[in-house]
């Protein structure tokens, strides 16, 4: 298993390169900014980038996913439910992306956005249990992501409740590798530590701990962080609908 984490500060976010070193196959998730660090990291690891994945259509930064996919010849992967204006590889809940001895299983986890996906990763040279989940802006260290683009905040929170319940079913030792950390506008109580485990978040993440749906919805809509000032334009640009201003 090869895993590289890229921490971004402006905007705040986290990208990942992971895959199978033995078979030289990898994927990049949620790339931000200059694509050269991902190309260099893959080259240093002796890996080809076989997939470029965005966990959702972002509204807090311009994604460089399509640019990286074009530079590497890899398919650009989004949820099949993403409403975008360009060709992409659409994936659905339960789909598996093969990466040599590593597999990446898609989990549809709506709530932050309707099309949001998480990626559950297993290294079959180590065992058949999942090792970590790339959880995007659904489950972050210390909070769950604020809801976007639902018919109402309550509906988005309801979707997020059921997505969180699915993630709680993962083994406690599965690592949580989120798409943001402290300073991001996508959560309220985010930690500066950019990784955790399902078990720790079950015990210490206030939103993730709530088991009652009605209580969860009340909690999530009571203090929704404001969207980034240019959120609509950024999401439109990432959807291929309009250029960012």
TrEMBL record:
Instruction: Tell me the InterPro entries matching this sequence.
Output: Metallo-B-lactamas, Mito_Persulfide_Diox, POD-like_MBL-fold, RibonucZ/Hydroxyglut_hydro
Q: Which domain of life is it from?
A: Bacteria
Q: Which Pfam families does the record match to this protein? A: Lactamase_B
Give all residue intervals belonging to the Metallo-beta-lactamase domain.
12-180
What GO molecular function annotations does the UniProt record carry, in alphabetical order? Answer: hydrolase activity; sulfur dioxygenase activity
Q: Supply one GO BP term.
A: hydrogen sulfide metabolic process
Cite the entry's keywords alphabetically.
Answer: Hydrolase
Protein name as it appears in the record: Glyoxylase-like metal-dependent hydrolase (Beta-lactamase superfamily II)
Q: Which organism is it from?
A: Bradyrhizobium stylosanthis
């Amino acid at each position: 298993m090869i895993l590289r984490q890229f921490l971004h500060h402006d905007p705040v976010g986290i990208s990942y390169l992971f895959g199978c070193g033995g078979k030289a196959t990898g994927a990049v998730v949620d790339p931000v900014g200059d694509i050269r660090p991902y190309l260099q990291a893959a080259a240093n690891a002796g890996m080809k980038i076989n997939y470029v994945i965005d966990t959702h259509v972002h509204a807090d930064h311009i994604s460089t996913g399509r640019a990286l996919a074009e530079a590497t010849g890899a398919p650009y992967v989004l949820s099949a439910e993403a409403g975008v204006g360009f060709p992409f590889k659409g994936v659905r809940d339960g789909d598996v992306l093969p990466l040599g001895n590593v597999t990446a299983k898609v989990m549809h986890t709506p709530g932050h956005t309707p099309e949001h996906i998480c990626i559950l990763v297993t290294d079959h040279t180590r065992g058949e249990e999942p090792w970590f989940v790339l959880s995007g802006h659904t489950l972050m260290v210390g909070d769950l992501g604020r809801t976007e683009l639902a018919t109402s905040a309550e509906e988005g929170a309801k979707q997020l409740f059921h997505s969180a319940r699915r993630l709680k079913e993962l083994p406690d030792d599965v690592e949580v590798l989120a798409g943001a950390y402290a300073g991001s506008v996508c959560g309220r109580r985010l930690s500066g530590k950019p990784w955790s485990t399902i078990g720790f978040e079950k015990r210490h993440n206030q939103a993730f701990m709530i088991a009652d749906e009605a209580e969860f919805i009340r909690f999530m809509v009571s203090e929704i962080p404001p969207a980034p000032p240019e959120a609509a334009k950024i999401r439109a640009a990432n959807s291929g609908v309009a250029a960012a201003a």
